[in-house]
Write a structure and sequence with these properties.
With about 260 residues, the chain is of the alpha/beta class. The chain is about 35% helix and about 15% strand.
Length: about 260
């Protein structure tokens, strides 16, 4: 089984996305033999009020929740976020959050963000943080959004040891406490593999040796990206099959 921890539905403000409907994404998943996917609203990243995107997402996945696992985009600096979180969890059945601090203009150390993470943790919701949405070379001239610095992630992970974090679309972990066996961090975070190198620098193999297979999860970034490179990374990874199975789905099942 394969569970994709990094997938999206709906349009994006700055470019066309293919396979961005529930049916379209499921056809792509079937073609690539991906069984389930954690999905959030792509357009909610740029909505002034992300809750509208969450409601659109919930409607889109309503009949396919056996395979599409909805995650809410919540902006803790936006008034009413607590009500939105309650609705997303209790009425819309969302299993986790996607946070965009650089797009929504707050810091991971802000009190509002820490309050959101605390509330999500009480609800046993997973908190996922995309390090980036797009490569800066692909961004519209209207925006200039930097990647989330790993140093800020380190502080948040340490401050919220009971929370389950998934870090999406990231690289450079081997130079951070997040990718070191003696990094002094709680074992409460998972690293998604879609941007990690599996040859040459082989960050994926280095992380596997450093932090173990229990901290790595499969993700593709579709439909922003095609899933083939992420799938190929697992094929060429020099690791036993039981280790690969943990990355494909075992760790994600444990989180869910």
């Amino acid at each position: 089984m394969i569970i994709d921890t990094n997938a999206y539905l709906g349009p994006f403000a700055f470019r066309q996305l293919r396979h961005n409907t529930a049916d379209g994404l499921l056809r792509l998943m079937d073609e690539k033999r991906i069984d389930r996917a954690m999905v959030s609203s792509a357009i909610a990243v740029t909505y002034r009020n992300p809750q509208a995107g969450n409601e659109e997402l919930a409607a889109a996945v309503e009949r396919r929740r056996d395979r599409l696992i909805p995650f809410a985009v919540i902006n803790p600096s936006y008034a009413g976020w607590l009500d939105d979180l309650q609705i997303c969890h209790e009425k819309l059945g969302m299993k986790g959050l996607r946070l965009y601090p650089k797009w929504h203009n707050y810091a991971l150390s802000d009190e509002c963000l820490l309050a959101l993470v605390e509330e999500a943790t009480k609800r046993k919701m997973i908190v996922s943080i995309p390090i980036r949405v797009e490569d800066s070379r692909q961004q519209s001239w209207l925006v200039d959004i930097p990647d989330v610095p790993l140093a800020e992630i380190v502080v948040l992970v340490k401050a919220c040891p009971e929370t389950k974090f998934i870090l999406l679309n990231g690289i450079g972990y081997t130079g951070s406490p997040l990718g070191k066996p003696a990094g002094g961090l709680p074992a409460n975070y998972f690293l998604e593999i879609s941007r990690l190198s599996a040859t040459l620098a082989d960050e994926l193999g280095t992380l596997l040796a450093a932090v173990g297979p229990e901290r790595l999860v499969f993700g593709s970034g579709m439909p922003f990206k095609y899933p083939d490179p992420a799938l190929l990374k697992l094929e060429v990874l020099d690791a036993p099959e039981d280790v690969k199975e943990k990355i494909r789905s075992g760790n994600a099942v444990g989180m869910l």
